[in-house]
Amino acid sequence: MKHVVGTLAACLALACAVPLSAAEVSERAARLHQRLLVLDTHLDTPANFARPGWSILDDHTAQRDFAQVDLPRMRKGGLDGGFWVVYTGQGDRTPEANRRARDHGLVRLAQIREMVAAHPDQFELALRADDARRIADAGKRVVYISMENATPLASDPSLLSAYHALGLRMLGITHMRNNEFGDSSNAPPEWNGLSPAGKALVAEANRLGIVLDASHASDQVFDQLLELSRAPFVLSHSGADALYDNPRNIDDARLRRLAENGGVIHVNAYGGYLVPLEQSEERKRELAELDARYGNDGSLTAAQITQKLRERDAIDARHPVSNATFDDYMNHVLHLVRLLGPEHVGIGADWDGGGGVAGLEDVGALPRITQALLDAGYSEEDIANIWSGNVLRVLGEAERVAKETAGAG
């Protein structure tokens, strides 16, 4: 979720962006997009739920807020829902830090469920693969729950069964640092993949029917998931290493193995993982000082947000930097679709966690992706799979494995 510059990366995208023109989305694409079941596999929006005065029902814009997802823009962009993330930053792994992570995860889980309960006419919790279409057809937004970074389970891995009972259906092993369960893609190896606890966690996720997510995990974790998981797994928000060599991206050879195993890569719109974005040391220092001065974005008032954005604008003016574009994003999407086929690619743009590029600033611009896929010659069936069919197939496979495991027991 929070990368080097956190959620302010989305604001940088807007500073360089050209407003979306209605002419860029044809009538055919717009109609198709509205018919499709459109899901994103990595919505970090629950980080906003505890912000003072913030409501999912209000129209927030990134120019005056940090939010990229809310109900009005979901309607505008035809986003039916997706996987809403229980994100926990990695602590120092002391018993005290792990207890804080445990409590944070449970609170965030409760906040997601409370949001759904507060707006039952607009949102509904989804528990099975076939729930999504039913919920969308009823005019509601789909809320699957996922976890990014398994550290809330470090003090008690058996909590996974409680999370599952309360709605968790996708589990990411690590984030930007190693944890008790495995190695991160952004840290030196500690376990050479999964730890013993991580291997046990994989088996438990399979038993419960939770989809495993290898985004942020090391290549060795990826390889071991292919060997150990009895169900296909996903990358909920990653990119193509062939286009930009970055630790967070995955090489083509591994991606072919993912597809052969029935898995799916969902493409991240975080600009720093799409193309090289050079920043001066002065800019990095000033951004770090800005973030340190204001602390956690989720605790800021509207006035503090406005002031922080003003100061960010001043840094942008002093130290301008280029940003990734919609074309850069689609280069990754189209490379992966050509490599793996449309049955193994999806969209997980990392909204409200740093995602967003010039021309794709928030979920209101999602029809542009459908237009680009049509322009590239893909069929309506292909595009339907990319938007939701693929991840729901994987979830269905996880359900099947869990049922078989229960039957064998």
UniProtKB/TrEMBL annotation:
- Choose any GO biological process term that the UniProt entry carries and state it: proteolysis
Q: Name one GO molecular function term.
A: metallodipeptidase activity
Transmembrane stretches in the record are: none
Q: Which InterPro entries match?
A: Metal_Hydrolase, Pept_M19
Q: Does the keyword Signal apply?
A: yes
What keywords does the record list, in alphabetical order? Signal
Task: Tell whether Signal is among the UniProt keywords.
Answer: yes
Which N-terminal stretch is annotated as signal sequence?
A: 1-22
Q: Which Pfam families match?
A: Peptidase_M19
Q: Do you know which PANTHER family this protein is assigned to? A: DIPEPTIDASE (PTHR10443:SF12), MICROSOMAL DIPEPTIDASE (PTHR10443)
Q: What is this protein called?
A: Peptidase M19
